[in-house]
């Protein structure tokens, strides 16, 4: 048995990122942004990545940063096109190729305090995979990938068909305001938090972009600020970076609130530049100490635009 603080499982993708300023081609995916963020933090970490053999250079780049990476070779790598307008809270996305679903055999004897299931599409992980993985450690999921249905190359938002079957095994779930509405059918953050908790999620993280986050642990709703960015350059991977910061702190024993504040600062640094997070813990602390914090309140929550 091999024990880690955090294990992320997910596809390393080919990404085409289009913004009003420029077009960039790079590696991507939840596991890419999550892993790059963790590589700058002090964590006992392993990535289990899926990708085509032709794209192994992405794995070698992560290994060169000192990360432990296990690989599931696929016929193809996931290939995404992300197009952003001036408001980078929103994007248009296309899928140009798909990898294979993960199988439990690739996990070997890996155990961890937290497993972050980095689904990019609804069929990346079977229900049985998540169930078996939950026997080895706590499960963390960003629901975004589970709400994607690919028709041709177009990505459409759909409900998570098997959510009640999977969420009972999930300890940490992150959803933004749009995903929250798709999952729960409500735009009321408090009602949605209670619903997700009642479905089995132990720690509900509802992220509201530049307006902050709302956490729910079954007892209290906790308001967490977003830190003001000097410039919004590239929002791709911000949610994955947020989750890396959150689980990094939780694995060290920090509270949900402390972890989410750290995560928000990590995401702020990431959004100010193209590519993954490249800061340090000291950089994150500086953001928390010096930047304007925007704390969500009842007025903000009542006027969310869906």
List the helices and strands and how they pair.
Blueprint: E1 2-11, E2 13-18, E3 23-28, H1 30-39, E4 45-52, H2 57-64, E5 68-74, E6 79-84, E7 91-97, E8 110-118, H3 127-133, E9 138-142, E10 148-151, E11 154-157, H4 163-167, E12 172-176, H5 177-184, H6 189-198, E13 203-207, E14 213-216, E15 221-224, E16 226-227, H7 238-251, H8 256-271, H9 281-290, E17 293-294, H10 298-302
Parallel strand pairs: 1-4, 1-8, 2-6, 4-5, 8-9, 9-12, 12-13
Antiparallel strand pairs: 2-3, 6-7, 10-11, 13-14, 14-15, 16-17
Helix pairs in contact: 1-7, 5-6, 7-8, 8-9
Description of the structure:
The structure is a single chain. With about 300 residues, the protein is α/β, with parallel strands linked by helices. It has ten helices and 17 strands. The strands form four sheets. It has a nine-stranded mixed sheet with strand order 5-4-1-8-9-12-13-14-15, with helices on both faces. A four-stranded mixed sheet has the order 3-2-6-7. β14 and β15 (about 220-225) form a beta hairpin. α5 (about 175-185) crosses α6, α7 packs antiparallel against α8 and α8 packs across α9. The longest helix has 16 residues, at about 255-270. The radius of gyration is 18 Å and the shape is globular.
